[in-house]
Design brief:
By secondary structure, this protein is of the alpha+beta class. The protein has 2 domains: 134 residues, Beta Barrel (OB fold (Dihydrolipoamide Acetyltransferase, E2P)); 260 residues, BirA Bifunctional Protein, domain 2. Helix content is 33%, strand content 27%. The protein is built from 15 helices and 21 strands. The strands form 5 sheets. Strands 8, 12, 13, 16, 17, 18, 19, 20 and 21 form a 9-stranded mixed beta sheet that branches. A hairpin with a 4-residue loop joins strand 2 and strand 3. Helix 7 packs across helix 9, helix 11 runs parallel beside helix 12 and helix 13 packs antiparallel against helix 14.
Length: 504
């Protein structure tokens, strides 16, 4: 028998004894706390000497003869509780002796201050509410220092409930994500956008260049794909004369996994009729100002990560730079060298930039952006004038038909948004899709598919529209200083553990 099995057996025996005492923790349906732990601590004077109920999980437990202490936690704060044999029934006192770290309990008692100055609940009633059968890796704490906590990264990500219980910093980051998302929703509601939901299972997965996940619809005997974007369905809503629309939803791209990429992620997309690229820039600036002010209390967000400290300043307009001008300035490759695919290939080789099979001029240009330009985009910046080959849903730039009315937003060298003046000409859109089909036929499996239903909606009349997509996970990483994407995903997808697949 392993050590864990032995501990589990002991705890099962304690549970059996609690049941014999008539204190079965799993038979209790509810226990009404009179006040939160923060309320007890911050409002101490109101509860001193006054009997009050509270609840929490035991995170420390020590017995000293006929008295003992425990600390309970609600996930955010800890409160010390003092137990004395003479103040409890015989069953409750024995139950106190049967408690373990990880158990949930309900308490009633009065607040007082110990000789060491710690605010403490003097317990007069004890109700076991759950029995933890597994050992929780809760560390020791003293004077703000922690020891022996949960540090195994793989265990943290696979069993996130342990991370929430045991790691205050991880808990804070994951809960802050929820506040950021709520603030984003508040912003769009205030701007009179309508939030909608669009299909996850689609016959044509469009709106981006990515490889979709495949599945099967049994009811219709139909092969379908998990969506890779929210775009095309949201623009159909625009075609239905809903002028402002947004969605925050999960999308799925069957690609590699890295510290900054996950095949399943959360995307925000918003579209506004009768607006263009500059309007989308203003919306992005307004959105980040709103989130900074509402969540962080000001337009400047001070961030501390494991490796650095930095400041994000959203008080001013973002910098604007031209893609081709920045490439020429930072790489030494002239715009004349990038007028066709073969000359661009030679320029790429001359600059000693790794070639990864890019099959279009646009792909090479975006590789040069990634290699030379992105690392310099530290302050919030919009990069404009992207090549038409990689922007099949954006309007052409009327001054240069090889470029589009598209921008990407960057900060700290990371892309955080992608926006267009959307094509609303169905003839132009069909021609773009046909060009993408040609790329697919030549081997680019991520080229955009033909979507006849979307084209039908456009042919019914689509107003001039600005649209933007923002990766929620990347926003949270930047604002909270996460170095690894999985730190901001509550339940990241993990490669199965060998033990989980072992024969039984």
């Amino acid at each position: 028998m392993s050590a864990n099995d032995s501990i589990r057996e002991v705890r099962l025996q304690k549970l059996a004894r609690l049941r014999e005492l008539g204190l079965d923790p799993f038979s209790v349906e509810r226990f009404e706390p009179g006040v939160t732990l923060r309320g007890l601590i911050d409002g101490y004077s109101a509860f001193e000497g006054r009997r009050v109920p509270c609840v929490g999980r035991i995170v420390s437990h020590r017995l000293m003869g006929k008295a003992g202490f425990a600390h309970i936690s609600d996930g955010e704060l800890r409160l010390q509780a003092y137990f004395r044999k003479d103040d409890l029934t015989e069953a409750e006192w024995e139950a106190y002796n049967l408690l373990d770290v990880g158990d949930h309990i309900g308490l009633e008692g009065e607040m007082f201050t110990t000789k060491t100055g710690e605010k403490t609940l003097h317990v007069r009633r004890l109700v076991p509410l759950s029995k933890a059968l597994n050992v929780l890796p809760i560390g020791k704490e003293k004077e703000g220092q922690s020891w022996y906590g949960l540090s195994d990264v793989d265990l943290r990500y696979r069993h996130r409930h342990l991370d929430l219980v045991c790691n205050a910093e991880a808990r804070h980051m994951l809960l802050m994500r929820s506040k950021i998302v709520a603030s984003i929703r508040d912003f769009f509601a205030a701007q009179e956008y309508v939030e909608v939901e669009t299909p996850i299972l689609q016959t044509v997965a469009g709106g981006a260049t990515a490889t979709p996940f495949l599945t099967h619809y049994n009811a219709y005997e139909l092969d379908v794909k998990l969506r890779i974007s929210l775009e095309l369905y949201l623009k159909r809503v625009i075609c239905g004369d809903v002028p402002r629309v947004f969605e925050i939803g999960r999308v799925f791209r069957n690609e590699g996994v890295s510290n900054r990429h996950n095949p399943e992620f959360t995307l925000l997309e918003f579209y506004e009729a009768y607006s263009g690229l500059e309007d989308m820039m203003q919306r992005v600036e307004q959105l980040f100002r709103h989130v900074a002010l509402e969540v962080f209390g000001g337009y400047e967000v001070h961030v501390k990560s494991e490796t650095e400290e930095y400041k994000l300043d959203f008080s001013d307009d973002w910098r604007r730079v031209d893609l081709m001008e920045e490439i020429e300035k930072l790489s030494g490759i002239s715009q004349n060298d990038l007028h066709d695919y073969e000359s661009a290939r030679r320029a790429l080789d001359k600059a000693k930039v790794p070639y990864h099979g890019h099959k279009s001029l646009g792909g090479i240009i975006e590789k040069l952006l990634e290699h030379f330009v992105e690392p310099t985009l530290i302050e919030p910046t919009f990069v404009v004038n992207y090549p038409i080959e990689t922007s099949p849903l954006a309007k052409k730039n009327p001054l240069d038909p090889t470029r589009t009315r598209r921008f990407e937003g960057y900060m700290r060298g990371r892309e955080i948004c992608n926006a267009f003046s959307e094509i609303n000409d169905p003839i132009d859109q069909r021609a773009r899709f046909e060009g993408q089909l040609a790329q697919r036929a030549s081997g680019n499996l991520e080229a955009h598919p033909m979507d006849e239903d979307f084209l039908f909606a456009m042919e019914s009349g689509m107003p001039p529209t600005g649209g933007c997509g923002i990766g929620i996970d990347r926003i949270v990483m930047l604002l909270l200083g996460a170095e690894v994407l999985r730190e901001v995903l509550l339940f990241p997808t993990m490669k199965p553990d060998a033990q989980e697949n072992a024969p039984q």
